TrEMBL record:
Subunit details: Interacts with PHYA and PHYB, mostly when they are phosphorylated and in Pfr forms.
SUPFAM superfamilies the UniProt entry points to: Metallo-dependent phosphatases (SSF56300), TPR-like (SSF48452)
Subcellular location: Cytoplasm; Endoplasmic reticulum membrane; Nucleus membrane; Nucleus speckle
InterPro entries, A to Z: Calcineurin-like_PHP, Metallo-depent_PP-like, PP5_C, PPP_dom, PPP_phosphatase, Ser/Thr-sp_prot-phosphatase, TPR-like_helical_dom_sf, TPR_2
Membrane topology: Multi-pass membrane protein
Name of the protein this chain belongs to: Serine/threonine-protein phosphatase 5
TPR repeats: 11-44, 45-78, 79-112
Enzyme Commission code(s) on record: 3.1.3.16
Cofactor: Mn(2+)
Amino acid sequence: MDTENSDVARAEELKLFANEAFKANKYSQAIDLYTQAIELNSQNAVYWANRAFAHTKLEEYGSAIQDATKAIEVDPKYSKAGYMRGAAYLAMGKFKDALKDFQQVKKISPNDPDATKKLKECEKAVMKLKFEEAIAVHGSEKCSIADTIDFHTIEVEPQYAGARIEGEVVTLDFVKKMLDDFKNQKCLHRRYAYQIVLQTREMLRALPSLVDVSVGDGNHFTVCGDVHGQFYDLLNIFELNGLPSEENPYLFNGDFVDRGSFSLEVILTLFAFKCLAPSAIHLARGNHESKNMNKIYGFEGEVKSKLSEAFVELFAEVFCCLPLAHVINGKVFVVHGGLFSVDGVKLSDIRAIDRFCEPPEEGLMCELLWSDPQPLPGRGPSKRGVGLSFGGDVTKRFLQENNLDLVVRSHEVKDEGYEIEHDGKLITVFSAPNYCDQMGNKGAFIRFEAPDMKPNIVTFSAVPHPDVKPMAYANNFLRMFS
């Protein structure tokens, strides 16, 4: 009995330490401490719900749903657990599942004004979703918005003093002026925004789903991870490593937008460099280059606010043209998320993916965008609730079967901006320092020098940005939980 009491007391102590770590934004440490508390006393719903909350902060929504479900099993009347699960479903875009949880929370706490507010917001989101599904045009009937736009017919008002493209060609002078305007929080005229996005679309459409990149001996190539709308940190990368050019080429490995509130500036910058010199910048699709994510995490709201509704649709169309992976010099495989739920996937299988669609919820394309490495061998469920986790043996076999040396991927915040795993065969690179203004992480990029193609990792810290909070344009409902 004494042991049992001391376990309960120790668990409570660990919870308090975990709460402190959580407040200090040390979410992984908080998860470890809540886990220790759960091991000593698994019948306390608070520990499970708190760990679920920490998982949501790390975008591990699959794990958050599992923990919140366990909290509900332990104490069906504990409304915070319903909140947590509802919030995690919401973050995954599963509005209908979220609605069920908030209805249950309202039943448990009928007089809680917060519960009422969240339920109303969720009902609105589901109604909107049903309306959009009802009016959606499917399949071949749907015409491309890009084909309906002629940017030449859009007038530029005489009072517009920003960057201008003279004629059809994007020049370096234009790009530098545009970057300067963006730095000073000025918008680009929609005529030129249309021109950049439409020209980029033409280039991306012509590319295969897996792009081979060749780097000549004595030359270098830089790979960046997620930038997530952190425009001022993107400018800092260019300060540290030079502007993209044919002599200084880059690959940006997905998740250009969402979360950070300068996503439009980021995407127009990357697209403008693509128009300026197609071989100077390569772009891969991330899981956030999708309608569902953009609706929730801010890019849709930002584009509507800074440009127009039509641009939302146009970006969604262009994102479907982004390649899914790159191979550098036949040796380095670069992808946003990770590897696959089955062995034997060849590069030719990736080349053969019909990528011109919204990402599906399973299959090779989904796994390329969503999967994560795990320390244990084999495969496991994804902590995100989409894709899977794969071990070092999976990485090793994939590399051997395709005569490759290294996997480079992004998709996960890392304290140092990068992490080397799987016996040095896999590197995660993440280029959004102090992610969401709260994670305190460094950013990183990788420079490869040909012919040896050894990764040289450069880390950097966040730089100041104007006082616009991350997620400023995000779904109202999600902001309640962030």
